[in-house]
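Tokens for chain A. Residues wanted.
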């Protein structure tokens, strides 16, 4: 309760400063509407069926992208982390691809898969893969060699060692990567909707509100709702991590 009270106090102070800056004329209201106006629009949008469909579209794309990223990154990370020859052979291409900003790939992705939901899902997958992949590799680097030697001495196959020894050890690390990728995937989904256009989504709503009449109150309201969605996703994953891996110090440190 103390933590919640402190967070709410900080938020209230920020909103008060924002309101005061606009009402005093330090900032023009047409560029930055006061929170009293923006929060009113937030309430209105939460009751707007069309906007709620945009929210659902963004969340659905986020969930699909994160699921695909996990399905790709975890097996690849297990292979790269456990087979040194493969890791060395692929290091150059992995280090080349990882720093490329996902938004820079928007034109290429649109040409390859079109500008529909596939574009935002593809870019979100690309961005979300890396934290999970590197956390998986790092987890295998940190595993106690005695565990692997014991498994081998018992005649356990390499595949069985990966699934029954390495994967349980790496699970808290992997989940931390999933938490990081969850936020990244949501950012990419909304950004792609805004930059590349989409039939539905929070980013598309922001794009339409900012063009034409330039409704900054709606832009900020939709942005706050996107932030709230991200907060709820992160909080939900954090609670899930504590429930699943409460015994591990890895998830505790990540929080």
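Reply:
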């Amino acid at each position: 309760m103390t933590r919640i009270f402190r967070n709410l106090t900080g938020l209230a102070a920020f909103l008060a400063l924002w309101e005061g800056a606009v009402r005093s004329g330090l900032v023009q209201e047409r560029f930055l509407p006061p929170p009293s106006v923006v929060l009113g629009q937030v309430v209105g949008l939460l009751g707007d069926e069309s906007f709620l469909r945009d929210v659902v579209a963004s969340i659905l794309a986020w969930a699909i992208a994160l699921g695909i990223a996990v399905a790709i990154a975890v097996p690849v990370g297990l292979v790269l982390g456990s087979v040194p020859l493969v890791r060395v052979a692929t290091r150059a291409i992995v280090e080349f691809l990882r720093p490329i900003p996902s938004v820079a790939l928007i034109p290429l992705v649109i040409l390859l898969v079109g500008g529909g939901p596939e574009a935002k899902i593809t870019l979100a997958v690309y961005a979300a893969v890396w934290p999970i992949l590197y956390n998986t590799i790092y987890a295998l680097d940190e595993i106690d060699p005695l565990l692997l030697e014991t498994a081998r001495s018992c005649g356990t196959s390499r595949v069985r060692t990966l699934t029954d020894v390495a994967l349980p050890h790496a699970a808290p690390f992997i989940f931390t990567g999933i938490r990081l990728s969850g936020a990244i995937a949501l950012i990419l989904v909304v950004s792609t909707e805004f930059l590349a256009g989409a039939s539905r989504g929070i980013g598309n709503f922001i794009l339409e509100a900012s063009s034409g009449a330039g409704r900054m109150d709606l832009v900020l309201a939709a942005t706050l709702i996107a932030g709230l969605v991200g907060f709820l996703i992160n909080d939900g994953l954090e609670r899930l991590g504590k429930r699943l891996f409460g015994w591990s110090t890895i998830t505790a440190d990540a929080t």
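The chain is about 80% helix and 0% strand. The first helix runs from residue 2 to 23.
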